[in-house]
């Protein structure tokens, strides 16, 4: 029996515009945990992008792991979890979904639960409340998902995207609950039909890998961006500048405040340089679709 593992989970961007609460894309930015069995639970946080509080009982990853263990009537052997992350908190890059997915995998390993990928999709999406970020963290690549009233997730998964994604991360946090708080509870039927048509066109364009149309429909959201735009630093300026610099399109990453542009791979260097110069208070980061979802490495006992 092994006593140490690495669990690596990609962060993600959600919505890509009108794919609200449904479409996700795993990004090449990761949450990584080194897990070692020991006599009591301990969390160690390394570097930036991790909360300062390492209290075990209130830790999202611990709480998630214990919740899953309880669901399966299992008990978890205690361990030390050393965690580092490339996902800044509360910026719309799926840091909490990645932590939830990591917590589920931790329970899977320590409780020997033999969870299937479908189990992981369902549990993570139920905890999150929607399947966009969670599915992308479980599978990597692009995910188009729906969750039914019983919490069962159906996901269409496309691994490869021949484009790069550039995130504009401002130096402010925005809680998802605050960003969801500005959304209307109801939409008028004609408006909802237009919003839905744009979402359909986005999904179809993603499957067809029609990047010009992907960009156009990423910018055609009616479900959430019109209501959230005023909360987002440089929302209009970044859309305009990115388009001028060659982006196919730009959208809010999840609930924001990060914005994400999809760009041709051939322009990535000059695009990043130009955007970083124009938006010096944002961190402008080049990413690609994550080539895998949850990755577990098992070490031999001697580590
Ligand atoms: N789809 C979610 C939203 C992502 O836009 O609120 C953040 O949880």
From TrEMBL:
Q: Does the keyword Glycoprotein apply?
A: no
State if Ligase is listed as a keyword. no
> Where is this protein found?
Cytoplasm
Residue ranges constituting the GHMP kinase N-terminal domain according to the UniProt record: 60-141
UniProt keyword terms in alphabetical order: Amino-acid biosynthesis, ATP-binding, Cytoplasm, Kinase, Nucleotide-binding, Threonine biosynthesis, Transferase
> Could you say which residues bind ATP here?
88-98
Q: Which GO terms describe its molecular function?
A: homoserine kinase activity
Q: In which pathway does it act?
A: Amino-acid biosynthesis; L-threonine biosynthesis; L-threonine from L-aspartate: step 4/5
Q: Which InterPro entries match?
A: GHMP_kinase_C_dom, GHMP_kinase_C_sf, GHMP_kinase_N_dom, GHMP_knse_ATP-bd_CS, Homoserine_kinase, Ribosomal_Su5_D2-typ_SF, Ribsml_uS5_D2-typ_fold_subgr
EC id: 2.7.1.39
Where are the bilayer-spanning segments? none
> Which reactions fall under this protein's catalytic activity?
L-homoserine + ATP = O-phospho-L-homoserine + ADP + H(+)
Class in the EC hierarchy, top level: transferase
- Domain called GHMP kinase C-terminal: residue spans: 203-280
Family label: Belongs to the GHMP kinase family. Homoserine kinase subfamily.
Q: Which HAMAP family match?
A: Homoser_kinase (MF_00384)
> What does the UniProt function comment say about this protein?
Catalyzes the ATP-dependent phosphorylation of L-homoserine to L-homoserine phosphate.
Protein name in the entry: Homoserine kinase
Q: Which organism is it from?
A: Solibacillus faecavium
């Amino acid at each position: 029996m092994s006593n140490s593992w690495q669990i690596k989970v990609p962060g993600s961007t959600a919505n890509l515009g009108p794919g609200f609460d449904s479409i996700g894309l795993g990004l090449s930015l990761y949450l990584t945990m080194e897990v070692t069995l020991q006599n009591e639970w301990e969390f160690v946080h390394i570097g930036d992008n991790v909360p300062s509080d390492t209290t075990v009982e209130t830790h999202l990853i611990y709480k998630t792991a214990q919740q899953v263990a309880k669901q399966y009537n299992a008990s978890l052997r205690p361990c030390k979890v050393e965690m580092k992350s490339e996902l800044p908190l509360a910026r719309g890059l799926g840091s909490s979904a990645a932590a939830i997915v990591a917590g589920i995998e931790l329970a899977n390993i320590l409780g020997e639960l033999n969870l299937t990928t479908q189990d992981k999709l369902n549990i993570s999406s139920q905890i999150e409340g929607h399947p966009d970020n969670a599915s992308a963290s479980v599978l990597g690549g692009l995910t188009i998902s729906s969750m039914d009233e019983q919490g069962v997730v159906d996901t269409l998964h496309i691994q490869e995207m021949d484009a790069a994604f550039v995130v504009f991360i401002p130096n402010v946090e925005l809680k998802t609950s605050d960003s969801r708080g500005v959304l209307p509870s109801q939409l008028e039927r004609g408006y909802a039909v237009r919003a839905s048509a744009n979402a359909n066109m986005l999904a179809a364009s993603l499957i067809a890998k029609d990047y010009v149309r992907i960009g156009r429909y990423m910018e055609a959201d009616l479900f959430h961006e019109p209501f959230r735009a005023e909360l987002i630093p440089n929302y209009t300026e970044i859309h305009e500048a990115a388009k001028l610099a060659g982006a196919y399109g730009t959208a809010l990453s999840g609930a924001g405040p990060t914005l994400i542009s999809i760009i041709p791979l051939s322009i990535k260097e000059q695009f990043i340089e130009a955007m970083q110069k124009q938006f010096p208070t944002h961190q402008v980061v080049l990413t690609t679709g994550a080539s895998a979802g949850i990755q577990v490495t098992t070490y031999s006992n001697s580590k």
